Amino acid sequence: RPLSQQLTHTLFVSMRNFVCKMADDAELLMTLYDGKENRAFTESYVVRWSREGLAREIDQMHNLRVLFTDLGSRDLGRERVYLVCYVVRLGGMEVKEPDKDNKKHSRQSVSKPPPVIEVLRRPYGVAAMDITLFVAGKMETDEDKHHFLPFLPCEKDNLEGTLKRILANKELTQRDHKGQGLYCSFKMLHGDIKQVREENPHLVLGQVATARKMGFPEVILPDNVRNDLYLTLVNGEFSKGSKSTDKNVEVTVRVCSEKGQALQGVIMLGGGVQSQNEYRSVIYYHEDKPRWSETFKIAVPIEDFKGCHLRFTFKHRSSNETKDKNEKPFALSYVRLMQEDGTTLRDTQHDLLVYKVDHKKFDANDVGYLNLPSKRSELIEGSKPSHGGLILTNKDSFTIHTNVCSTKLTQNVDLLGLLNWTSQPDTLADSLNALMKVDGEEVVKFLQDVLDALFNILMQNSDSDVYDNMVFECLLYIIGLVSDRKYQHFQPVLDLYIQESFSATLAYNKLIVVLKHHVDNANSSEDKDLLLKTMKSLQYIMRFIVRSRILFSELYEGKGQQQFELSLKQLLQSIAVMMCYNTDATLLVQGACLKFLPSTIPDILQVFSSVQLSSLLMDLINKM
Asked: Which PANTHER family match (predicted)?
């Protein structure tokens, strides 16, 4: 089975019913939550639930199923995993009491929500259940068995605080949840989404929503192109201003271009619902220090990412609907998606500056604020930046957290230098040296792009050998990484790259020349560590050589075969000579050669006579 299927796991969840006394419609956001790290680690699955106790979306009626995908062995081994459902009320600021006639309504008809001028998102409660043993495979999961997730109302707490109350209480009693909660069934499935669909058609027939892990799967295949930014609204602090009580703050998030135009359909609340043009936060009543902890996905096309920024506007939402119509945003924050050095926004918490809006001078279409500092770390001490109706308010603060999952945009400036080498050819040598210091996690994430860049450097410098040695050393670094136990599950990804994506027809000659040079100098004072790495990487170096030669031969109808065979023969003869050396310094290298050379034979036989190869190998053995 492909490695992605062995290392990838999927949790199938079917929502059966939500029992709760509600006067308004609700939004149910289900996610997998790490109880030790206190954070969700998957996207949400979103269900719009009517106050009559039915799914509001036609597509979701009798089809409330989701696949939590991309789970790896590390996720299955988490200490505490919960299935959590946040319940957000959709209605006015105040709860409208349900009609007394409501009970007369047929349960089959979906009634209209209460008459509200604009639907606001208000905290209602949380349902949760510990599913650690099910996820870890220590308890059997069955799609026909219903589990009860007890529901706890928020009362005066925020959603995250309510969840913490549930997690702190090992067992919620009937007195706590009053019979209210979520009924679900779930089943642990093994394999990627393709395999899951093939092996479980009865579960995933038709449209089934997916909610991905907010991070990479353990194996990133070359065709897994992804460019997702997960944004968490963490918290804020806002002064009362002219009001006598604390504000009811709503944050609206838009993704805007450099010209201030909002990008359409790039905000995803979660699986199961359509993309949105903006995100509006939950509103906490009379709370000057709201703690939202709300996470959602932003999926901006790679080509638009560079010029975009996130714009946050803050608005007080009045309980009085007439007053609320006249409310305008009282403050604004922003942050660019790309940093000045061309890398993406870091995966960390960002303390954003809050600018107070003076509506007499403010023009909503003016993007001059992009020249103002956006983060607290950019602020010059003692300064009070302002622009056209916007002035910094030091009393207010706003914190977000970002997590970029991209196979195309990096947060590492050294890796970026290599990937963009054509725009800065003068610093190419520095970029190649820097690559060998880049963290392995980042390199394997961009494996295909890094290899493409290295072989393009060889191809575009075909008349020069200036960079050949450096590129060769970078290849040794990458092969060494995927041979390491920590990243060995990327070996099939490298195999797939060589077989399907690799296209450097001129690389074979350069690789043979560099490889032979290192072998010929085995007895000199040259770096023995480099030669040892070369021997350990023989299998993949030879694979690149053979694949390159096959591609060249297909393109030019076998041209240069004699010269190729001669250079390969000379390389193998050099290796045989190296095996004759009788010094302590070469002993490790010779041992590695004997261990790894046999693995190259199947590849060499694709392009070389078996009789000749046997003769050369016999010569090598006899010389020992």
From this structure: DEDICATOR OF CYTOKINESIS (PTHR45653), MYOBLAST CITY, ISOFORM B (PTHR45653:SF10)
What pLDDT, in 10s, does the model give residues 17-67?
Answer: 999 988 899 999 999 999 999 999 999 999 999 888 777 666 666 679 999
> Alpha-carbon distance 409 to 387, whole Å?
31
What DSSP state is assigned to residue 506?
T
CB under 8 Å to 41, separation ≥6 — which residues? 32, 33, 34, 75, 78, 213, 214, 215
Q: How far is CA 332 from CA 85, 170, 232, 390, 397, in A?
A: 30, 41, 17, 8, 11
Q: Interior CA angle at 303 toward 297 and 304, to 5°?
A: 60
- Structural domain ending residue among the three candidates 352, 375, 406: 406
Nearest-angstrom CA–CA distance, 295 and 253: 12
Number of C-beta neighbours around residue 583 at 10 A? 9
State the residue for tokens 């308004």: 24
Whether residue 205 is contained in a domain is answered as yes
> How many C-beta neighbours within 10 Å does residue 545 have?
25
Q: What is the 3-state secondary structure (H, E, C) of 449-467?
A: HHHHHHHHHHHHCCCCCCC
Coil, strand or helix: which one is 471?
A: helix
Pairing between β-strand 65-71 and β-strand 209-212 as defined by DSSP bridges: parallel
Axis crossing angle, helix 561-578 with helix 507-520, rounded to the nearest 10: 20
Q: Which two tokens stand for residue 279?
A: 């995100």
Q: What DSSP string describes 426-443?
A: GGHHHHHHHHTTS-HHHH
Q: What is the pLDDT of residues 270-304, one digit of tens each?
A: 999 999 999 999 999 999 999 999 999 999 998 89
With respect to residue 221, please indicate whether it lies within any of the assigned structural domains. Answer: no
246/206 same-domain check: no
User: Checking phi first, is residue 262 left (phi over 0); if not, alpha (psi -120 to 50) or beta?
Assistant: beta
| Tokens coding 584 | 């302590």
The beta-strand segments (E) located in 265-389 are: 267-268, 279-280, 291-298, 309-316, 331-336, 349-352, 355-357, 386-387
Separation of alpha carbons 280 and 254, rounded Å: 9
Q: Is the same domain home to 204 and 318?
A: no
